[in-house]
């Protein structure tokens, strides 16, 4: 059985929980207190962070790597495109998402007031830039829910929590977010801490 060591408030852990619930398979989630991490986390991940996935003699960390492994191991429903060109594009999108959005999470959560304010502005602007996509299509890659939607959902869930308000042009992003949040697997994957982030 797969065991996911997951932070109850960690957006990267939330990505992995969403994928596990989307796949509807047997797994165990071990909630980790990020303020008092057990020593075993440092033994499993040299960076001392969650999420960490353990399956028999395999130990993985970094949410996108974990999620691709789960997707390949349990291919239904498939979350990465089957076509190699589309899959490469999806990986590039994921890389850009890490760089343009998720790299600011540390500043949003733990940065100085000045760093947090700057991060809010960058994330707001980057999300507003991609808003036109969602005026035309249901999900990031068109009509099919994919790993890209999984990857961005935890950030969209936390916008209010991080004090990020999208301008009027960003409204398609918020409508897209509601589509993601209404998925049964998304709802199941939420922790009590995450539920409390939104009023």
Would you give an account of this structure?
The chain has 199 residues and is of the alpha+beta class. The protein folds into two domains: 2-77 and 189-195, Glutaredoxin (3-Layer(aba) Sandwich), CATH 3.40.30; 84-183, Glutathione S-transferase Yfyf (Class Pi), Chain A, domain 2, CATH 1.20.1050.10. 55% of the residues lie in helices and 10% in strands. The protein has helices at residues 11-23, 39-44, 63-73, 84-100, 105-110, 113-136, 147-157, 171-181, 184-189, 192-195; strands spanning 2-7, 27-32, 52-55, 58-61. It has a four-stranded mixed β-sheet, covered by helices on one side. Strand 1, helix 1 (11-23) and strand 2 (27-32) form a beta-alpha-beta unit. Helix 1 (11-23) packs across helix 7 (147-157). It starts with a strand and ends with a helix. The mean pLDDT is 95.
Total strands: the figure is 4
Number of domains: 2
Task: Summarize the amount of helix as a percent range.
Answer: 40-55%
Number of helical regions: 10
Query: Residue ranges: pLDDT <50 for 5 or more in a row?
Result: none
Order of helices and strands: EHEHEEHHHHHHHH
Query: Between the first and last Cα atoms, what is the distance in angstroms?
Result: 35 Å
The rough form would be described as: globular
**What's the Cα radius of gyration?**
16 Å
β-strand amount = 5-15%
User: What number is the mean pLDDT?
Assistant: 95
Taking strands numbered 1, 2, ... along the chain, how are they ordered across the largest sheet?
2-1-3-4
CATH topology name of the largest domain: Glutathione S-transferase Yfyf (Class Pi), Chain A, domain 2
CATH class label of the largest domain: Mainly Alpha
């Amino acid at each position: 059985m797969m065991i996911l060591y997951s932070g109850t408030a960690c957006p990267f852990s939330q990505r992995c929980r969403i994928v596990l619930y989307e796949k509807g398979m047997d797994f165990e989630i071990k909630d980790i207190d990020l303020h008092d991490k057990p020593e075993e986390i440092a033994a499993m991940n040299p960076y001392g962070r969650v999420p960490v996935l353990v399956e028999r003699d395999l130990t993985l960390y970094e949410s996108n790597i974990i999620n691709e492994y789960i997707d390949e191991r349990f291919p239904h429903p498939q979350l990465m495109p089957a076509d190699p060109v589309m899959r490469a594009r999806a990986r590039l999108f994921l890389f850009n998402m890490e760089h343009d959005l998720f790299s600011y999470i540390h500043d949003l959560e733990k940065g100085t007031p000045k760093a947090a304010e700057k991060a809010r502005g960058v994330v707001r602007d980057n999300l507003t830039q991609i808003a036109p996509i969602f005026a035309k299509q249901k999900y990031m890659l068109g009509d099919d829910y994919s790993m890209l939607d999984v990857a961005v959902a935890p950030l969209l869930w936390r916008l209010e929590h991080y004090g990020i308000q999208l301008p009027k042009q960003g409204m398609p992003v918020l409508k897209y977010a509601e589509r993601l949040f209404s998925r049964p697997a998304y709802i199941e994957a939420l922790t009590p801490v995450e539920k409390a982030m939104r009023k």
